[in-house]
Design goal:
With 183 residues, the chain is α/β, with parallel strands linked by helices. Helices cover 35% and strands 19% of the residues. The radius of gyration is 16 Å and the shape is globular. It starts with a helix and ends with a strand. The N terminus is likely disordered.
Length: 183
Amino acid sequence: MRTCCFLLAAVSLTAAAQPRRVLLDAHNCYPYDGKYADRVERALATGTPVAIEQDLAWHVDPTTGKGRSVLSHEVKTTGGEPLMRDYFFERIRPLVEGELKSGNKSRWPLIVLNLDFKTNEEAHLKAVWHLIYEYRHWLTSAPKNGAKPEKLDVKPVLVLTGNNDAQELVFHNAVPAGGRLLV
């Protein structure tokens, strides 16, 4: 429920800030079968604001038993899939850091990152949370204070995800009171 309220607040903020704002949705914006490695660049070339979807699955290396989050439309992964850090976050770095330096908040968020989790293992969700946390200075967030939604601190990137219990546990419930909600 709280996740849903946060999402509605984010959508309301975006709509209120720019009532005629339309977002292109770059659906499945990641390489697939070794093809389309330039999808993020192509999405950004359409102009901002833009929504970019990244599908995520948990890959466990059969040799080491270590897991990692990879960009994949499929639950069954090979381990050759790209990582969101390299494929998405580092590719948008120049744009986001330029925006933060300019301080022109009137067009923020520039990028709405839609996370589509194909698998919801706790380890997977925690790994994604830690990755997102590394980029927290770029991300629209809100303080976690009780049951009522709080005002968003709008930044160049807004991260959205679906509403399911496993995701709510990691992205909301595990955040301490006074902490920042990033998803």
